Amino acid sequence: MQIKEDADNLPLVERFHTAEYLARELSEHLRQAFLPRLSELRSASKIYDPEAVTDQAMLDKMLGVLKAEEFANDVFAKLSRYLESIERDLGRLHGLSDDDDNQE
Question: Would you say 19 and 82 are in contact if contact means Cβ atoms under 8 Å apart?
């Protein structure tokens, strides 16, 4: 799916679909990539035999976790932008705005 950087210029329904897609992508990534890599790193860190788990193996596992975290953060940032855009437009549709909140 093509994710546009400027969500505010998209129709509201397209933003909902994209936000749903991003939420699903984030959930799947966390379950299928991030958490398994984190679990592998945790298991490897409990092995005290340097021949069974080398420094290079630990480094590779840490880099895998960091790469998965970076991807998750990127997807989360996109999802947040879409959700904030949806929230702003829904607030406008209901006659609410950020200005109303600041006056109280």
Answer: yes
- The tens digit of pLDDT for each residue in 26-66 reads 999 999 999 999 999 999 999 989 889 999 999 999 999 99
For residue 17, the Cα-to-chain-centroid distance in whole angstroms is: 16
Distance CA 23, CA 71 (A): 13
Cβ proximity of 37 and 60 under 8 Å: no
- Buried b / exposed e over 45-57, threshold 16 CB at 10 Å, is eeeeeeeebeeee
Cα distance between residue 33 and residue 76, in whole Å: 15
DSSP 8-state secondary structure symbol assigned to residue 34: I
